[in-house]
Design brief:
Keywords: Antiport, Calcium, Calcium transport, Ion transport, Membrane, Transmembrane, Transmembrane helix, Transport, Vacuole
Family: Belongs to the Ca(2+):cation antiporter (CaCA) (TC 2.A.19) family.
Number of domains: 1
Largest sheet: 2 strands, antiparallel
Strand content: under 5%
Number of strands: 4
Strand order of the largest sheet: 1-2
CATH topology: A middle domain of Talin 1
Structural class: mainly alpha
CATH superfamily: NCX, central ion-binding region
Shape: globular
Subcellular location: Endomembrane system; Vacuole membrane
Protein name: Vacuolar calcium ion transporter
Distance between the termini: 68 Å
Helix content: 55-70%
Number of helices: 16
Radius of gyration: 23 Å
GO biological process, one term: intracellular calcium ion homeostasis
Length: about 450
């Protein structure tokens, strides 16, 4: 009896031996439907009935109705907020089904990319409505959620299931270093602002919106130049990172790339061999998964637009700090699918995938999404900058610092997960206080 190799990374060469498929062959393979592939009816049945969270899809039409009938702002916000939760899960499901044919590295990249689809949609909707503070806080909140909450829960779950989890040090440190670079690019505009304001007669009071005058105009002009130039450089660095990850040094990010990798303690990281039982069979045909992905993204864009439109009135009527909504609430909803996937991968001891989802998603937001939105704002006449509030900049810096310290040894355990979760809880507690974030800062808009 002959067996069929179901591993998507391998094919048969002319000599009958297995060979590794190229990325082009993997992507082209998405559009081929082999025998036994699930039909479109079975695919959509799995897609719509495969999770109990899909019950919350009833809030999608409620979000549309409440917005068009101009119901109370709290209802409009709540309905749109809850509607995004199952939509984020569906985005994750469709992405996961597509990623089964792409291999681990591309799977992590695809999960990170479409896992950030909700954040990107919400940010673009807020940018076009000139809600620049919502753009900044929602994206920063997504970075913090991935680095602290999602990665912390993954380390905690993986540590409870296994005494110690190990991952490739070089790949993790490269990702963490790029995350540090992106963090520094947010610190520099804040340093520039402080140097300009403190140097003029003792500085400005950030709680007074009518004080800045000519100094604010000069500061804002300088911040725009710094932000736009930095954004272009970050986009170039991110493209280089993709080439590094997918082409030139793909073996560092692939769980099955090399037999061993030397760690700092001199011990080798053994290659993991997966049996056929570990190979997950797709429940959706690739084409139907792609169509579902596009449709859910479209519906999510409308729900996100309604959500952003109700934020201003909701914060005023119910006295909810706007930064708390951006930093905590929105990322909890939009990162739900990534959270589940990352924790599940950590429990299965697939830490390369976990690091790729959590840190990779944060890198994508900080080095690609935020710079891209600055450029889009430049084109559309919305002056979005890389200058964040001082509190937010410090929080991001210490979060990146803690993650760097924890991943540098290539090992994780449940105690490290608890550290990350504890820091996230401190940040959430701080964001609940209205006086921490003034509603308006000079040059922040």
């Amino acid at each position: 009896m002959t067996s069929t190799d179901t591993t998507p990374l391998l094919g048969n060469g002319a000599d009958g031996r297995s060979r590794r498929l190229s990325y082009k062959e993997r992507i082209v393979g998405i559009f081929s439907i082999p025998e036994g592939q699930p039909g479109w009816i079975q695919s959509y049945r799995y897609f719509l009935l495969g999770s109990w969270s899909n019950v919350l899809l009833v809030f999608v039409p409620l979000s549309f109705i409440s917005h068009n009938l101009n119901w109370d702002a709290g209802l409009r916000f709540s309905f749109s907020f809850i509607a995004i939760m199952p939509l984020a899960k569906l985005l994750g499901d469709a992405t996961d089904q597509l990623s089964l044919k792409l291999g681990q590295t591309l799977s992590g990249l695809l999960n990170a990319s479409f896992g950030n689809a909700v954040e990107i949609i919400v940010a673009i909707a807020a940018l076009l409505q000139d809600e620049l503070r919502v753009v900044q806080t929602s994206l920063l909140g997504s970075i913090l959620s991935n680095l602290l909450l999602v990665l912390g829960c993954s380390f905690l779950a993986g540590g409870l299931m296994h005494d110690q989890n190990r991952f490739r040090t070089t790949a993790a440190q490269t990702s963490a270093s790029l995350m540090t670079l992106a963090c520094i690019t947010l610190v520099i505009p804040a340093a520039y602002f402080m140097s300009q304001t403190i140097g003029e007669g003792g500085g400005l009071d950030p709680t007074k919106a009518d004080q800045p005058g000519a100094i604010e105009e000069r500061c804002k002009s300088g911040l725009l130049i710094i932000s736009r130039g930095t954004s272009i450089l970050l986009l170039l660095v991110y493209v280089a990172y993709l080439v590094f990850q997918l082409k030139t040094h793909a073996r560092l990010f692939d769980e099955d790339g090399d037999d061993t990798e030397d760690c700092e303690d001199g011990q080798g990281l053994p290659r993991r061999h997966h049996s056929q039982d570990d190979v997950e069979e797709p429940e959706m045909a690739p084409i139907t998964a792609g169509i579902a992905l596009l449709l859910v993204t479209l519906v999510t864009s409308f729900a996100a637009d309604y959500l952003v439109a109700s934020i201003e009135e909701t914060t005023e009527r119910y006295n909810i700090p706007k930064p708390f909504i951006g930093l905590i609430l929105l990322p909890l909803v939009s990162n739900a699918a990534e959270h589940v996937t990352s924790v599940w991968m950590a429990m299965k001891n697939k830490m390369e995938m976990t690091i790729g989802i959590c840190v990779g998603s944060s890198i994508q937001i900080s080095a690609f999404v935020i710079p891209l939105l600055v450029i889009i704002g430049w084109i559309t006449g919305h002056d979005l900058t890389l200058f964040f509030a001082t509190f937010e900049t410090i929080v991001l810096f210490v979060s990146v610092l803690l993650v760097n310290l924890l991943v540098q040894d290539g090992k994780s355990n449940y105690m490290e997960g608890l550290m990350l979760i504890a820091l996230y809880c401190v940040v959430a507690l701080s964001c609940e206080l209205p006086y921490v974030h003034p509603s308006r800062l000079p040059c922040a808009d």
